Every structure is written in structure tokens, then in C-alpha cells.
Amino acid sequence: MRVVIGEDLVLLRDGLIRMLTAYDFEVVEAVDNGPALLRALVTHRPDVAVVDVRMPPSFTDEGLRAAIEARRQVPGLPVLVLSQYVEQLYARELMSDRAGGVGYLLKDRVSDVTQFVESVRRVAGGGTAMDPEVISQLLSKKDEPLAALTPREREVLGLMAEGRSNAAIAARLFVTEKAVGKHTNNIFSKLGLPPSEDDNRRVRAVLTYLNA
Amino acid sequence: MAERAPRVSRLAAPGWSFVFILFSLPVSVPLLVGTVLGTVLSPLWLGLPVLVLFAALVRGYTDTYRRWAGRVLGVAIPRPYRPIPRGGPFTKLKALGTDPATYRDHAWLWLNATLGFAMSVISLALFLGIGFYLIEPYLMQITPPDVFSYDFGLFRVNAHENWWVSWVFAVLAFVLWWILGPVLLRGYARLARWLLGPSARAQLSQRVADLASSRAETVDIQAAELRRIERDLHDGAQARLVSLGMSLGMAEDLLTRNPGMAQELLAEARQSTSLALSELRGLVRGIHPPVLADRGLDGAVQALALANPLSVDVDIDLPVRLPAPVESAAYFAIAEVLTNAAKHSGAGNAWVRVRYEDGQLGMMVGDNGRGGATAAPGGGLHGIERRLSAFDGTVTVASPVGGPTVVTMRLRCDPATDAARPS
Predict the structure, then answer these.
(1) CATH class in words for B290-417
(2) What is the interface pTM, i.e. ipTM, of the complex?
(3) CATH architecture, domain defined by A141-209
(4) Out of A58, A89, A142, whose CB is closest to B299?
């Protein structure tokens, strides 16, 4: 799988390259600033990109902006954004093109290597990987249209947004997979999502969830 | 502060002049007489209550002028009096007698009874003159020849030959009234502001006192912040790193002898790093939230609204980027009010409105909760007031029991120059 890395701190960039190479990714380019990242993403069109939010030259949300711009030029380009902190605002902006293939994780999640690599693969496959911290901010929200959901359904939706499969959700909540299936169907109908391919529907449920 | 156009129309001016003719000399003189009487009689005990009574009347009287002049000039004229100390009637009387504003009030009484009265009379006379000269030719006709005619030496104005000279006078009176009317009125108001407002000296010393207290607050708050950061680092991230080192050391030691145990310790170490990171994250947010650096006040408040459990409407219109310290203070103030609303108000909705106009940043945060919020000492709102005092900021809380609550915060600031922008 071909991957582009955008990270300005040498230590972390080398670590990411080493880790992803060890898990059979091919790092086609690793860049350290926003403009170079945008160029790399548009020319290489990688299977997935791993991008730090804060990068030169402005040392603000350069990486995020480059990722969003790249997805505008190459629709659906899978991007996993890493950051020292998470903002729901940024999650929303990332998902605003409603195309899926988006991840937004705290940098420390990298330390759980297997789970992190799994997240990268999931994003490459068009799925989502939202950080539990984004989710926990959302869980406290009393907004429409999520008001219709029961607390349990909200919990299931949150785990879905993190990118977990029904089986993984079942294991996490100590219920059967069938029960989770029932919850997800309820969620889809309460959010007014017409039947379609399950993956696509999951992404759209997450989008609704993020209020995008 | 810049003066705005007078708030009293030209047509209302004669009315005011009439009111002041009745209100200046006829009221000032009895007040002066009363005060003098009270002073003369004060060796006899009788004078003291008279003095106190007249002091109160004088202040009430001058307050009316302050309000009126403030309206005409478009600026508020603050009361210049020193606070009346607690204590017996003698302490209070002494405070009254030593307050320079008392003497300025009495100077005003004299001036108002003379100059003020005269200005009002002239202003009204000019106005009435227009009417008088207009009907004078008619009056000349119906009265005996000597009552309303003039002798200018060279010629006589009378009803038959040159009655129109009266109308020339009418036009003259009109022009004078048109020009002088507002000038007199504003001059009168300026006179009132000059004597009844705080003197430049009093204003300066008040300003110095305000600055000294706001500086003390700022220093206090900064010291407290640094102490908090030090404590958080000491008890949080530093402690986590120590325990991380311990876990790693033990794992190193156990690696060959007991690989299972070593693996457990390594997992524990990893846990420690993520806890340390999350604590550092919290700390950084408290010092300077990254989203504020990224997006400025606008984006940062949007992010706040999204992260708040309430559904928050955000309406921000900032034509300029503000200096970093102001952005930061404004952000934390709004964050605090929103957090309060989510915690205590029981509201379901909240809104934030931010505007920048005429060098003033105005922030309003409201919710539809149960109200009853106050800026009591020790509370969150009082804390905001203290923080904003470094920017001459004010906080007003409108929160009747039963809601809704609206907190309005204002502070003065100039737009950021490019050099001062956060990079």
C-alpha cells in the first residue's frame, strides 16, 4: 500500500516511516511542510496519507488545510490526520465533503501500534477513524438530530465513528453481534438513512453524528 | 471622548431656555442662601441639619444639570464626589466640607444664577424677538403713533412709510437665533461639564487608582496561573515520567527472567505516556489553546461552541485580527461563561455574539436557562471581571431569576499590527 507522510518533526517522521514500512506499507514520500504535502498528495495520489496538523511555514493548521485542499482536487483521497490535540471543528471540516476515507486521531494513539496500523488500513479502505476524544465531546451534546437516539444507540454510533466493526462493538459492549446489528439498524432509520451498502451507510451515519 | 452632535433640536432650544430661566437663578439663589445660612448658624447646633439638607439639595440640583448637559454633549458626565465615609454626622460633614467638588458645585450656583440665567434670557429673547418684529407693523397700526415707533435720528420707523424695517429686524433676530441658539445651549452645557464634571486632576487620579488596582490584579492572576502550571506539571506529567522510567527499568531487568511480567510492565509504561500526554494537552489548552493560534478568536469560539454540551449559536463579526493578549483574554472569558451556562443554568441553548466597533470589542453570551447568575466575589464571573480589568474591560450580568441570562463583556483595544500577530 502506497503512503505519503506529512510530519515536520524529524523524530516522529522517522518513527512513522519505520513503523509503516515494518507493516508492509510503501512510503512514497515524506514531507515536512504544507505546500510540499499538497504537491506530494496531488502528484502521487497515494492509497493513504498520514498527516500532522501543525506544520511549517505558518505552524498553524497547515497540514489540515493541505489535506482538505488535496481532497478537493482528488475527491475521496484517504487521509489520516494526526494531531497533538483534537477539535471537533476540524473533524467536521475534514468530513465536510461527505466522501469518507477520513481519520482524525491524537498523536499518542500511535503508541498502540497494531490498532494504529489498523486505523490506517481502514481509512485507506474508505472507512473512518475518529479519535475517542472527539467522540466523547459529541456524547455530551444534546443536539438534534441525535436527540432521538437512546443512550445505548449513541454509544454504538460513537464506536462506529471510531471505525469499529459490529463484531468489535459487540465485544466492547459485551453484547451479541446480532444485538449490535439491531442497534445500527435503529440508528440508520432514526437518522433517516435509506438502505444502501452497509459501509457507505456507516460513513453517512458518522457524518450526521459529526454534524457535518 | 469625542463629542457628538447636540441631542437637542433647534426648535426645542427656546423651550429649554424658558425652563432654565425658571430653574437657574430662581433655584440657585435659595440654595446659596440656605447654604450660607447653614454655615453661619452652625456654631449654634441648628445650622448643621440645615447644612446637610442643603448639601443634599445642591447635589440633586447639580445632578439634573449633569444629566441634561450629558445629553446635549453626548457624553456621560460622572459625579465627581468622593465617597461619603462611614461614621457620625461630623465625619460626614467634614468629608462634605473638604471635598473640592462641593466648592465647584457652589461656584456653579453663582455662575448659573448669573451667566447661565443671562444666556437663557438672551436665547429666549432672540426667539421671541422674531415673533415680535413680525407682528410689530400691525401693532404700530392699532396703537397710538408713539408707542411702537422708533426714532433712529435720521429717520423714524412708523406704521405708514417704512413699517418693513421691523421685518428686517425680524430677519436679523431669526439669523441671530439660528446661529446663536445652539451655540448658547452648548456653551451652557460645556460650562456645566467644566464645573460639575470631575476636574482633570480628579480624573487623572481616579485613572491612576484604577490602573494601580488593575495592575495588581493582573500580577496576582499571572502569579496564580504560574503556580497552577507548576503544580500541574509537578503532580502530573513529571510524576508520570518518573513512573514510566520505573516501569521501563523494571521491564529491562525482567526481560530475560520473566518475559510475561516484562510485557505487562511495558504495557503499563505505554499507558503512562498517554496519560502524561493527555495531562500536558489539558495544560496547553489552559495556557494558550492551539485552535486559537490556528484560527484566531473566530475559529476558536466556533470550536468552543461545538465542544460545549449546549447547542450554541455563534455570531462573530471581526473585521480585524486582534492582538494576541486580547484574543486570549476574550477566548477564556467566553469559554468561562459558556462553561458556567452548561454547568449551572440548566439551559438547552446558548448564543455568543462578538463585535468589534470603534476600538471596542463587545462580547455577549446568553442562555435560556434559569437565570440568577451574579458576579459575586469568588465566582467565575468575578474572575472574568478581574482578568478583563487589565484591558479596561467591563462585565455586566443581566440574569433575572427565571432567566434568561445575558453576560455582556466589553474591552478597549486597537487592532493587531502585523508584527504582533501570532505566527
Answers:
(1) alpha beta
(2) 0.82
(3) Orthogonal Bundle (1.10)
(4) A89
